[in-house]
Amino acid sequence: MAGQQTKKKAAMVMTVTKDRDVPMEKIRNIGIIAHIDAGKTTTTERILFETGKTYKLGSVDEGTTVTDWMEQERERGITIVSAAITTFWDLQTGSAIENGHYRVNIIDTPGHIDFTAEVERSLRVLDGAVMVFDGRTGVESQSETVWRQADRYHVPRICVLNKLNLIGADFEGSIKSIHERLGANAAPIQLPI
Hints:
This protein is of the alpha/beta class. The chain has one domain: P-loop containing nucleotide triphosphate hydrolases (Rossmann fold, 3-Layer(aba) Sandwich). It is built from 6 helices and 5 strands, in the order αβααββαβαβα. It has a 5-stranded mixed beta sheet with strand order 2-3-1-4-5, sandwiched between helices. Strand 4, helix 5 and strand 5 form a beta-alpha-beta unit. The termini are far apart. The N terminus is likely disordered. One of its GO terms (biological process) is ribosome disassembly. Keywords: Elongation factor, GTP-binding, Nucleotide-binding, Protein biosynthesis. It comes from Candidatus Woesebacteria bacterium GW2011_GWB1_39_12.
């Protein structure tokens, strides 16, 4: 029995050590930032699923997401504290491989105005961010706040228009709001069908 425990401990140490053996230039910290209810945590869940980190999509409504781990977050359906989770991506094969080409730390941040300081703490360590917008509303008040915070820390961003499948979605209006309210030169690289 004691020998089995030792083997398990050694295996756990090897796993941790493998993750730490990734050279710094191969590590990327990517934040998911947005106004509350734009779909940050759902976007995070999709990334984790598509990279093979999870085998089932979690749901904010069902309280089954990976990054909303606090009971209060699950009850309220909002992110309160930033949560980081690691996945891997190989640029050469375009696939998720454990210890692949890049180690990607995904940081899911809160969107509620009460937790703006939590977002700002996360922005300090980001290499880039995915700025999520609700396709029905485009830029909202907290979107502007988070955008300015990202400007302050010189964080490059890619914008994602979420919820374009819902009634009231306005792709062109959302793009226009990014141009007008954020002063960003948003150029669509993928169009909704």
